[in-house]
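#struct-help
A.M.: can someone run this one for me? Single chain, 227 residues.
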Amino acid sequence: MTEPETIPENQATHASSGISDTRLEKLAALKAAGLDPFAPETYERTHTSQAIHDTFDALENQTVRVAGRVASLRWMGRAAFFDLLDESGKAQVYLRRDDVGEEAYAALKAGLDIGDFLGVEGFVFKTKSGEPSVHARAVTPLAKALRDVPLGKEYEGGSGEAGKLSDVEIRYRQRYVDLFVNRDARDVLVKRIRIVAPSATSWTPRVSWRWRYPCSAEAAARRRGPF
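D.P.: on it. Structure tokens below:
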């Protein structure tokens, strides 16, 4: 009779918390390459993603610093394209091995995932398809996402793109995932904030504010008590 396979305690803990062991390994690889995502305390951003599109004529060939969350990754040998998502929208970034160095490029290729936070410094240009983009000269990892992000299409070899999230259970229980993956959800949240915000200055201070958040049935049951 064979004994049941035992799972190491740390792996069991990671599995129960949703943390990916693969992403932890990538985090260790980034640290070993001197690109610790949790080392930077600040990153000075000069422009938002939407500004790259709205003011392209003024920014063309100018150096900018953008920051956001990786929403897509497309590796192509010696170069790569990825989208950075911030509160204003997406900005496409072009990364070339010759610009950042072979070692740094290899470390980024081996360590980056959808959902990671990056700071990028480079100059603004247009691709052959006419897309306003940032040609990266320096890439600074700012935080590593340790949980897998739902993707809209197949994700292989470190490439993919975050797409629509249709699982209602995940959307309500993991609101942060819904807001990252679904642009429609972010737009609704922003519009709601803009609608409600003016009333905060016009109502009297005595008004009581209450915000309602989705909660699990189990948590609701605990609040109601045993009877």
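A.M.: thanks! DSSP finds ten helices and six strands in the chain.
D.P.: also worth noting: Strands lie at 63-76, 79-85, 90-96, 117-126, 132-143, 160-161.
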